[in-house]
Amino acid sequence: MSRFWFVLALMGLTRCACDEDSSGASDGAAADGPMSLDGATVDDDVGLGDAASAVTSLELTPASSTLTTDGVTPARVTYHVVAHRADGSTEDVTSTSLFSTMPSLGTFSGAELSTTDAGETVVRATYQGVSADASLRVVLQALVLVPVAGSDPLPNNPSTVVSGAPLDPARAPAVVYPNDGVLIPNNLGALELHFLPGAGNSLFEVALESPFVSVRIYTRCNPLANGCLLTLDGDVFRGVAMASRGAPALQLVVRGADDAGSGVGASAPLSISFSARPVQGGLYYWTTSNGTAIMRVDFGELTRPPERFFPFAGDSACYGCHALSPNGERMTLSHAGQWQGQLTLLEVGSGQIALTRSDDHREQFQTWAPASDRFAGVFGDGDPPDTNIRIRDGRTGLVIESIPIGNEVTHPDWSPRGDRIAFTWVTHHETSQRPGRGGLGVVKYQAGRWSGPEMVLAPIDGKNRYTPAHSPDGRFLVYAESTCPQGSTYEASCDGDADPSSRIFAVTSSLASPIELSRVNAPGAADHGATDLSNTFPKWAPFVDERFRDGSGSVTWITISSRRAYGLRQGGGDQWLWMAAVDPEAVMAGRDGSYAAFALPFQDFSTSNHMAQWAARFVPTQPTDGGPDPGNDGDGSTGSDGGPDPGNQGDGGECLVVGDPCDPASDRCCTGAACRSNGPGVFICRPDL
After folding, report:
1. Is residue 140 very low, low, confident or very high in pLDDT (cuts 50, 70, 90)?
2. Chain centroid to CA 70: how far?
3. What per-residue confidence (pLDDT) applies to 408?
4. Which of 112, 305, 426, 636 is deepest in the core (most CB within 10 A)?
């Protein structure tokens, strides 16, 4: 939404709704005035005094406030603090009080709080060890006009036209995308809204409502296929996302009318939620456009578009089936696909090839240990198929040990807890990429050695279970399951390679039966009830976060490839990347903890995109002298800002980088990171946001 105007919907935008001192005055304007949580310290000259003058309570005003902001102009409120002493006297102590908010909202300058973010918080003033609280609620309230090139100008009073028109259900627009019940990362940066316009409508109101949001957007139909497109981005997306982060879901309704106001229809309400914390990490995925390649994007900096990462310029070979070390420093890939699987090991930060592809090293699929020091690989395309899992050194790629399985395996996945490796147990041999009648197995690391294989889900006729992936806390697996139409052992439509019937399930060691992540699998409106959507290759974002702003609940994120329709978009590819939130506690309790999926908006929709692999951090590539130049997207860019390695900022290389396992008792995480929980019993270095 690059062209818009904010129109203030309320007068007195920065005034309190109740209980504010009418003067708004404060006697704390001097440089040595009111304290705030932003680095100020309490005045050393203030003593506790004798018992008669001791502070018994504080009075903080305004005690309750409701402010509005349009997301650009800050809402402001000035606080006053009066101390009540034991001898009955009072004193204005605003200038020597310490101010804070819980949860954090806005910033203090003296006793004045200002914010462009909406939400609810408790403001606390503290003086001589005594505190007083006040409640503050900030609402994002705005009217946004979005003209459409080539369309008539919007009327001068679109809100009056729509609100004054008589209700006509026959004119109701229909929202096609996103899906109802979706949970969106608050840093996604953009969200497309696709809708069918309804009969006779030329003027549209998109209403977004929640306890902290009241936004009206007025626009024309920006044509997309047989409907309309409105992109929420820029200040609009940021304002709505920040106001809604970790808060109750907002309701989206599209209303359609004509300029004469002869009638108005309303869509069914749509529920949209936003995450409490931004999603972080590097995302690497395989694309089929302009020659196959590994693309990558920094999810924490989505203002930068994805870049073509590997193969480097001058290398036209086909690489895929890639895996990233959890700390993002190394990547493994296989070369030339099925029957070949020649292994390549790459140092991401320098762009150096540590192990060049050769017939001596073949691993069709790989997975990394939590400490990023080793990886495991499998290759089942030999004659006969190999039945071992090989553990390789993370720096050299050389084999350290082999784990004998006694049966062909593929799709290994190392638990974030480090104590097990899951895999697909193959009972019908085709290729590593196309196993038949698969089951799920694990080997466990116990008493300094790897166990024999144990079955998690046994193979059964008519089904294929494959691509297991441990949740970020290591407590359960997700996997893809296909159904063979004829109930046979193996068919092309159930060979584990973009199968039409593939759906995503979860399983834990304590569950009697798997749980379908039905909301991840669910079709959108444009799929017209179809369920064969090829939901494949589930992969996890690296972190478990709190679900709500107050720190309660938990959520993590899964990516899949799917053939489902991206609303009204008509792309050139047959599979795209989708993402969905998952509540791990719900899964552990035996329930479907998933939310509706959404398309990753930054990908190229003219091609197919697959196998989104995550790392805890995005490592810019800075080629060493004489090394390869990874920047081959035509503009000389390498994706690096030229700065230092973000994980080692001056720490001498001995600290632990983002993504490394850590001990909270002796936090050795590098500058900019902290050792934090990533689920029960799991601690890793995380960005210190």
Report:
1. very high
2. 25
3. 94
4. 426
Confidence (pLDDT) at 431: 80
Under a CB-based contact definition with an 8 Å cutoff, are residues 266 and 566 in contact? no
Can you list the positions of beta strands (E) in 197-262? 203-210, 213-219, 223-224, 227-233, 250-257
- Contact between 162 and 205 under an 8 Å Cβ cutoff? The reply is yes
Q: CB neighbours of 167 closer than 8 A, spacing ≥ 6? A: 263, 264, 265, 266
Q: Are strands 35-36 and 98-102 parallel, antiparallel or unpaired?
A: parallel
Domains of the chain: 9-138 (2.60.40), 147-274 (2.60.40.2470), 283-615 (2.120.10.30), 644-689 (no CATH)
In this prediction, residue 290 carries a pLDDT of: 66
Tens of pLDDT, residue by residue over 232-277, are 999 999 999 999 999 999 999 999 999 999 999 999 999 999 999 9
184 bridge partner residues: 274
* CA angle centred on 369, ends 367 and 371, rounded to 5°: 145
Alpha-carbon torsion (648, 653, 659, 664), positive or negative: negative
Q: What one-character-per-residue DSSP string does 516-549 give?
A: E-HHHH---GGGTT------EEEEE-S--B-SST
Helix/strand/coil for 167: strand
Q: Mean pLDDT throughout 473-489?
A: 91
Query: How far apart are the C-alpha atoms of 295 and 285, rounded to whole Å?
Result: 5
pTM listed for this prediction? 0.87
Per-residue model confidence as pLDDT tens digits over 400-417: 999 999 999 999 999 999
User: What number of residues does the chain have?
Assistant: 689
**CA angle 311–312–313, rounded 5-degree value:** 125
- Beta-ladder partners of 470: 477
Quote the CA–CA distance of 53 and 50 in Å, as a whole number: 6
